[in-house]
Design brief:
single chain; alpha+beta; Phenylalanyl-tRNA Synthetase, Chain B, domain 3; Phenylalanyl-tRNA Synthetase, Chain B, domain 1; 4-stranded antiparallel beta sheet; 3-stranded antiparallel beta sheet; 9 helices; RNA binding; magnesium; nucleotide-binding; tRNA_synthase_B5-dom
Length: 261
Amino acid sequence: MRWGRKGEQLKLLNGNTVELDEQVGVIADDKEIESLAGIMGGDSTAVTLDTTNIYLEAAFWWPEAIQGRSRRFNFSTDAGHRFERGVDYATTVEHIERISALILEICGGQAGPVDDQIVNLPQRKPVRLRVSRAERVLGIELSPAVIADVFQRLQLPFAREQGDDGEVFVVTPPSYRFDIEIEEDLIEEVARIYGFERIPARPPIAESEMRPTDEARRSTHAVRHAIAARDYQEVINFAFVEEKWERDFASNDNPIRLLNP
């Protein structure tokens, strides 16, 4: 695994040949590039009816290393879609074993050993949830027993301790819950399982006062209505368009090209 080098090219499984640079991760040996990391394999890795040996490779890719890469080449893949949003890094070997079992079941053969290399995995830091804070945010009374039941149903491991504001839950997110990072994430989980329909809708309590208005000044809303009444239409154009669109529809023979579209 390494970053690509400017000028390198790779023919992909979809038949496209793409030019790489230092912003794209690749899987390569000392002879050639095998695939775009976390996006698509190279054409040289294709399986045919004459294939007799298969090498299975599975990996965890950091979302930041995959996000936006496939769109640079004007295509998207299921792998890129998943890795961009985060996947469970703790089940890679389990997936390799499952794929191997399917190949043996359907095609036969003999499986080799699994070589598991672990480098720079995410660290799941504990997240603290104050019961008093959850009550203030949701506007309802919550007992520690209710919150504990929610975390048990979600299979979120937790510990309980006493803090300055009362009881505190310390939750260690599992590897597949990469969306739990701050206290509000846990409050959202509690509300979701507790039931949004059980949370009463209470109007906010605030002073209602009449503020003075400048009668000599027309509001944007009034101006828009006046212009629309005279058969004008408001048009919101695309900020960025294809180069040929700019030439065809705007008669602009020298459009400005974006460095990072």
